[in-house]
Amino acid sequence: MTLRKIIISLILPLASVFAADAQSLEQAERNLASWRTLSAASQPDGAAYSVLRQAYAAYAEAFRNSTPGSEQHTAAKTALKEIFPGLRRGAYFYAQANDQAMVLRFAADYIDLSLLPGMGDERLQESPGYPVLANLAATNIFNRGDYQSAILYFQAYLSSGDTQNRELAFEGLARSYYELRNYENAAYIATQGAAAYPSNWNMLVIGIESCGKTGADAKMEPMLQSALRIQPGHKGLLEYQGKMFERMKRYPEAADVFRQLYLGNQSSLDYTCHYAFDSYNAAIALKKADPQSARADSLLRDAIPLLKNILDNSPYAVNVAHALAVCYSLTGDKERLTEANSTLTALRVPAVTDKTLPNAETTYMPTANFDPLPEATASADTPLSDVDVDIPLAQVKRPDTYVVIIGNENYKYFSDVAFAKRDGATFAEYCRKTLGIPADNIRERYDATLSEIREPIRYLAEKTQMNPGELDIIFYYAGHGVPDVARGTAHLLPTDASGTDFESCYELDKLYAQFDEMPAKSVTVFLDACFSGATRGNEMLFAERFVEYEVEDAVAKGNTVVFSATTGKQTAMAYDEQSHGFFTYYLLKNLQQSAGVITLGELARKLTKEVDNKAYDKKNKHQTPTVNASAALGDSWRTRTL
């Protein structure tokens, strides 16, 4: 007896089950007898085919649920073999009537019957019309987005041996696996299909992307070569090829690819970094084999101006500074090596000497040398909060999420923002550990100038353009906000800005417009700042201002949701006992308690209540966080998660 019958027998009397099965089979026999009569006497009509389908459904159920070799199993199999050609006739009947829904239903039934366990020895795939109906079912169900079912029908078509639609079946099968994120099977099918049909662009793209997901570079390379023969200058393919060469440590080839991309877009930080580091890595490998290599010297000369340009825009990039110093050392430029070593000393990393054994650089973006918990922040005077410890570890990874964190604590012209660095550093820890975001996807900037805020935002713009509709973005800011009273606008305040020259500040409207222009899947912004002119310590930013201002809210656009620490004229205050801002503390607390599994709607509800209550208890002042979601999102943002 099957598991299904065992479960039913626990609920109903056994005799009732047998009676129901017997009644069902008796009705199926009557329906099949009716079909015989109607199909023999005249051309069957819709009523006749309805009777046939009822008989098919009952016999298929009996066949699945009976023991192979039993009387019931044998009788059901005999009936199904008789029904099988009638289902094909039904599909053709409804095709003449132009009833597409019924055509698909009968085509699917026809193929489903052949796929029943125990019917394989009947060789039904060799029956007339089988390839046509299998292909019809596969393509229609694929177009509906039911990829799991489409796989069965594409496989059924391919098993028929027909070749007329074989290319499209391979493509559809590969795409179905890809949409289901079964990248290994997608890569396997696409590889087979591309070998047979090397000019099929869609097949090649599916194969390349699937191999990229699984790291199957050896399989990817011939497909990339085929695709680039079709579209030689395709930027996306060249990026795949360049990064494939990097993973395979074929740095000279990678440098050639990224040189081509760089020459086409010299403003791209991504292309600049890859071209620079691939040239650097190739030169190091050549120098190790032959210290006098002229080719290595040429590659170093290519790398030096690129690395210098990157360092000018990312002055804290320790990996760039180190690579530049190595270049000067290997080319014997002692004067510039001295300058480069001064930079390394300022970044608190060892200087480069002629005894330094350089290794390949595998991080292809500027890596900032920031201490996540500086001594001044982590001293005994500012003990660890309960959210700084026991940080939950994620059960999943989120490689498609990118994060920018700005923690501005020490200002040149204004009072410091207590705990802003710790706010940012601990949020970064939650991103890595609790949200499962790779460390390489997180850009942290502390005590950032305007250019140091702009640089990671440009990086996000570049990454989303490279991966449209695929990436989730998180932007976090802790620090001063400043109002432009004349215009009624709000700005993030870089640490070196005067606060009166608003061109040196970062306007929120501009920030949100930049996020809107990014083709991101989603953007979530957290602002632990206020824009009333007050500070965390209740002072005013400007001595001549004795009142707090209420600026007009910047409007989130596109896919952006903004969580702000305050409402209107309120102040974003510090929770002194926990060494964090009130807003950030409860943001982290909710991530800690939920292990990161919380919707934005629930997070908004809890932040509003918890922050306002605790701020009023501790400071006798209200601080009410707000959420500013793009109108285009409606209420859909509430079900999002980080």
Give a structural overview.
Helix content is 54%, strand content 8%. It is built from 22 helices and eleven strands. The strands form three sheets. Strands 2-1-3-7-8-11 form a six-stranded mixed sheet, with helices on both faces. The protein has a three-stranded antiparallel sheet with strand order 4-5-6. The protein has a two-stranded antiparallel ribbon with strand order 9-10. Helix 3 runs antiparallel to helix 4, helix 4 runs antiparallel to helix 5 and helix 18 runs parallel beside helix 21. The longest helix has 28 residues. It is globular.
Q: How would you summarize what this structure contains?
A:
The chain is of the alpha/beta class and 642 residues long. It has helices spanning 3-9, 14-41, 46-65, 71-96, 100-115, 130-143, 147-159, 166-179, 183-196, 201-214, 217-230, 235-247, 251-264, 269-289, 294-313, 318-330, 334-346, 420-433, 450-466, 508-517, 582-594, 600-619; strands at residues 401-407, 442-446, 472-478, 481-484, 489-492, 506-507, 522-528, 560-564, 574-575, 580-581, 626-629. It has 22 helices and eleven strands.
Count of alpha and pi helical runs: 22
The profile of the biggest β sheet is: 6 strands, mixed
Unreliable residue runs:
1-20, 370-381, 533-551
Structural class: alpha/beta
For the secondary structure, the number of strands is 11
Envelope shape:
globular
Q: What distance separates the N and C termini?
A: 47 Å
Strand order of the largest sheet: 2-1-3-7-8-11
**Percent of residues in helices:** 40-55%
Strand content: 5-15%
Mean pLDDT: 85
Radius of gyration equals 33 Å
